[in-house]
Design goal:
By secondary structure, the chain is α+β, with helices and mostly antiparallel strands. The protein folds into 2 domains: 187 residues, Aminopeptidase; 148 residues, Aminopeptidase (3-Layer(aba) Sandwich), CATH 3.40.630.30. It is 34% helix and 26% strand. It contains 11 helices and 13 strands. α2 runs antiparallel to α9. 41% of the residues are buried.
């Protein structure tokens, strides 16, 4: 297996970007190169790692998605799934887009550290000459800080672009111990109430916390999670994973692949052996991602979801994890009151193609631009 290069400058002249059918990347040799890239990615993103992205593509079967791969000397040094989209947030505007879906919470490409500028330059040149009917390139759920974001801002200095959406979502990043962090983030009154709820819940049966980073009883855990989530408001709204065969299949395959790759942590709060709150973290050091959570809404008076999040603060004791992205919408009613740090993510649209296409994009971007991306 060829490892990614140690220095992007060593391979810059030989770097080639190709659009590849994703099915051609589902073989052992390609996956080995892909996984080697993920281990050295400038911006960790589990949703673009082989075990998650291939599960997504197999389950959802998008019609016009290719993997844009930057390669050098046989090594994979950058990867982004790109869709030739026909509509733009409900409007019939064809464009190229970094492909995401409702169960993928970060759109950052996988790029080897040190190759950030090289990757963006190659990707935009390729987009210029392969735009098709696309008016522009749209990248959603991008981190707005860090080496990858800094490189993109630099490359875009001479190209029309617009930051069309920005939000800050909860993140866990602190040198404090779990106990000290909870004390800082919650009032004494709220902590006392959590202790009371835990005590009252314990009086109804045997209360335990289970934590796994391996595949112990994983198939059972997956089915219990799908059932628990579907029993709540998401099931009634039709948005639970189990409500659709494709999203249920994605969840099953992704968690199985994540466990095999050593990327999965599972927590469950059980009452007499029955899970009443569950969550899955995806761990891609130095980042973690709080992927999915569910709780028994019939026990909401005991706040089982919050009790489990209290246990999840153990991430602060993990020396390999510097921060954990909540993957939650901004102003989330629960996690925002526990996790106090924030991560800015946004949507960026970029002019591509020739002068006329870029001029048309520039007019549209003026109406959408939220703020200057500095």
């Amino acid at each position: 297996m060829l490892a990614p290069p140690n220095s992007a400058s060593d391979h810059a002249q030989g770097a080639i970007l190709r659009a590849i059918d994703w099915r051609d990347m589902a073989n052992p040799e390609a996956i080995a190169r892909w996984d080697a890239l993920a281990r050295q990615a400038s911006e960790p993103n589990p949703f673009l790692e082989s075990w998650y992205l291939l599960a997504s593509l197999r389950a959802l079967q998008p019609a016009r998605v290719q993997l844009w791969c930057l390669e050098s000397d046989g090594a994979l040094i950058g990867l982004l799934p790109v869709e030739a989209a026909r509509s733009y947030y409900g409007r019939p505007i064809p464009h190229l887009a970094g492909w995401t879906h409702p169960n993928s919470f970060l759109g950052a490409p996988l790029v080897i550290r040190g190759a950030e500028t090289l990757f963006w330059q190659a990707l935009l040149r390729f987009a210029d000459t392969h735009a098709g009917l696309g008016l522009f390139l749209h990248l959603a759920d991008l981190p707005l800080s860090g080496a990858l974001a800094d490189a993109l801002r630099s490359v875009l200095a001479a190209r029309p672009h617009a930051l069309v959406w920005r939000e800050e979502r909860a993140m866990l990043a602190s040198p404090l111990s779990p106990e000290a962090y909870l004390e800082d983030s919650m009032s004494g009154k709220k902590r006392k109430e959590l202790r009371r709820q835990h005590a009252r819940l314990s009086e109804t049966g045997e209360l335990k916390v289970e934590r796994h980073r391996d595949a112990t009883d994983l198939p059972l855990w997956i089915e219990q999670f799908l059932t628990l989530e579907a029993a709540g408001w998401k099931g009634k709204a039709g948005s639970a994973l189990a409500c659709r065969p494709d999203t249920a299949a994605l969840f099953r395959e992704a968690l199985t692949g994540g466990a095999q790759a050593g990327r999965l942590e599972r927590l469950a709060l059980t009452l007499d052996g029955r899970p009443i709150a569950m969550l899955a973290n995806l761990l891609t050091p130095p980042m973690g991602f709080s992927y999915k959570t569910a709780f028994d809404e019939g026990l909401s008076r005991f706040s089982p979801g919050v009790l489990l999040q209290r246990e999840n603060l153990a991430l602060l004791d993990d020396d390999t994890i510097a921060a954990c992205d909540s993957c939650a919408a901004a102003d989330h009613p629960m996690i925002d009151h526990i996790w106090r740090e924030r991560r800015a993510v946004g949507r960026v649209s970029i002019g591509i193609g020739g002068a006329l296409r870029r001029a048309l994009f520039k007019k549209m971007a003026k109406r959408e631009r939220q703020e200057e991306w500095k």
